[in-house]
Amino acid sequence: MIKELAEQLSHGNNLTTDQMTNVMDEILTGTQNDEDVAEFLKNLTEKGESDDELLAMLNKMEEFALHISPNCQGKIIDVCGTGGDKLKTFNISTAASFVIAGAGGNVAKHGNRSISGVSGSADIFEYFGFDLNSEPSKVNEIIEKFGIGFMFAQKFHPAMKNVANARKVVGGRTAFNLLGPLTNPAMVKNQLIGVFSDDYQERIVKILQRKNAETIMTVRSDDGMDELSTTSKNKICLLKNNIITNMVIDPQDVGLQRGNISDIQINTKEDAIKSFVDVLNDTANKTKIEITALNAAGGLIVSDIANSFDEAVELALDTIHSGKAFDKLKNFVKNCGDIEKLEEVERS
């Protein structure tokens, strides 16, 4: 069946929900060979995925995934990007997650090792001794206890191993890059999502709205980052109270300084670790700290902890400057990782 559907896609025809649901079953159960799956995914990307196709893929991925449901006070959110901006910036959303948790939010962070960047969120958690293969029940408990925890995509989406080779064959972006951030195993209804292209900003919001999401903020900076940035203005699409609003945020309007991309770029995994720690213990350069605060602010709005960017940025900066963000990291690493690793980075 997959060959006929790949052929249909190559002529620019959309698949029905049933067709996509059935072919995803075949792909995720590993019954198809890698070349056929690669051809299918390549043709789908070249045609351009319809919202119905993406929704059918998303539903199937969720069906095959492991899930948790932490019981926390307040909303549980995720903060992540689709990746693919290739700008080699430090792990902004991972740092922002600890700021949000330090300010009283709950973050069920879902992520992977880096694909296009220098270091992914999983690389950071792993470096500090967190067990990426932690059982779902353990991760559930950690989120309830610390207000933050990490779900390693490869652990929680075991069926995705059946697509890994096909994705390598394709070599470029596929629909799965887009869907990864939308398949949070904690089934969060509130999320800050960085996207790699303007085309997808409102579409992602509408797809998640069809899945009964509550508050979703998709963001992209004018200079091409899949995060909120202090290096340029930012386009935002917000779903709240079932209403979708598009807006532009200029970091200078919320009291932040215009930064340069070079201030937040890194070259090695060591740089990534050092930048992450330095932001949280308030010793990094101003641009790194402020860009983290701006993304944390987005998360605090999505969490319903703050109502406006002005208020949220102030709270995020205060959480970093007061030491609360670093205390959150220290406590997390002490209980779920290797505190000596953290102390070593602090000394370096």
TrEMBL record:
Known InterPro entries for this protein?
Anthranilate_Pribosyl_Tfrase (IPR005940), Glycosyl_Trfase_fam3 (IPR000312), Glycosyl_Trfase_fam3_N_dom (IPR017459), Glycosyl_Trfase_fam3_N_dom_sf (IPR036320), Nuc_phospho_transferase (IPR035902)
Q: Which GO terms describe its molecular function?
A: anthranilate phosphoribosyltransferase activity; magnesium ion binding
> Binding of Mg(2+) 2: at which residues?
D226, E227
Task: Please provide, in alphabetical order, the Gene Ontology terms of the cellular component aspect for this entry.
Answer: cytosol
User: Cofactor note from UniProt?
Assistant: Binds 2 magnesium ions per monomer.
Report any one BP term from Gene Ontology: L-tryptophan biosynthetic process
Q: Where does anthranilate 1 bind?
A: G81, N112
Q: Which parts of the sequence belong to the Glycosyl transferase family domain?
A: 74-325
Which transformation does this protein catalyse, written as a reaction? N-(5-phospho-beta-D-ribosyl)anthranilate + diphosphate = 5-phospho-alpha-D-ribose 1-diphosphate + anthranilate
Positions contributing to anthranilate 2 binding: R167
The record's comment on protein family reads:
Belongs to the anthranilate phosphoribosyltransferase family.
Keywords assigned by UniProt? Amino-acid biosynthesis, Aromatic amino acid biosynthesis, Glycosyltransferase, Magnesium, Metal-binding, Transferase, Tryptophan biosynthesis
EC no. given is 2.4.2.18
| Role description | Catalyzes the transfer of the phosphoribosyl group of 5-phosphorylribose-1-pyrophosphate (PRPP) to anthranilate to yield N-(5'-phosphoribosyl)-anthranilate (PRA).
Write out the residues that bind Mg(2+) 1: S93, E227
Summarize where 5-phospho-alpha-D-ribose 1-diphosphate binds, as residue positions.
81, 84-85, 89, 91-94, 109-117, 121
Its recorded name reads Anthranilate phosphoribosyltransferase
Subunit note: Homodimer.
Task: Identify the cofactor(s).
Answer: Mg(2+)
Q: Glycosyl transferase family 3 N-terminal domain: which residues?
A: 3-65
Magnesium keyword on record? yes
- What's the short name of a Pfam family annotated to this entry? Glycos_transf_3
The primary gene name is trpD
Source species: Marine Group I thaumarchaeote
Q: In which pathway does it act?
A: Amino-acid biosynthesis; L-tryptophan biosynthesis; L-tryptophan from chorismate: step 2/5
